[in-house]
């Protein structure tokens, strides 16, 4: 499998580009900014973008949604609970002194247990509300990796003091959905370095009272 992380935008978002080598089908996850770099990486991989996916609707994770849709023709996927964030992203960004283009509405809504395919590879959607009500993670069992957006970080968890956030709900999501995965599953978060489920199970201070 092709897998690349690009750190984009002033808030340092991890944008992920995945591709199946055999079918050349690909996916872009959380294209927050730096659209030219994202598109250049897609071209370098030689993949056809089948999905554009937002793990959640915060403005720093979706700034290239519109341009990627226009350039690739791929559908946009996000959870329906975060629709309001997506279509009003410019207002949220303005509060931080930043400029972001509002996202088009998703072509398809993510749901818990939904399966997306890149060639023979299956990506399972895990709905993990708490950081936002529409927060989702993407689990690739055969690749032993999970993309966690702003739900789970290395030695930390997503903030819950923003609209739609709920700390107890976030911890429940992590415990029931993510901590159920095998210890050797690599955690690729929306910001910062990678980790593993086993590492977070044992040492994450938010999960070990």
From TrEMBL:
SUPFAM superfamilies to which the protein is assigned, alphabetical: Metallo-hydrolase/oxidoreductase
Record has Membrane as a keyword: no
Superkingdom per UniProt: Bacteria
InterPro entries: MBL_Glyoxalase_II, Metallo-B-lactamas, RibonucZ/Hydroxyglut_hydro
Disordered: annotated segments: 190-209
Keywords tagged on the record: Hydrolase, Metal-binding, Zinc
GO MF terms held by the record: hydrolase activity; metal ion binding
Protein name according to UniProt: MBL fold metallo-hydrolase
Organism of derivation: Geomonas terrae
Lineage: Bacteria, Pseudomonadati, Thermodesulfobacteriota, Desulfuromonadia, Geobacterales
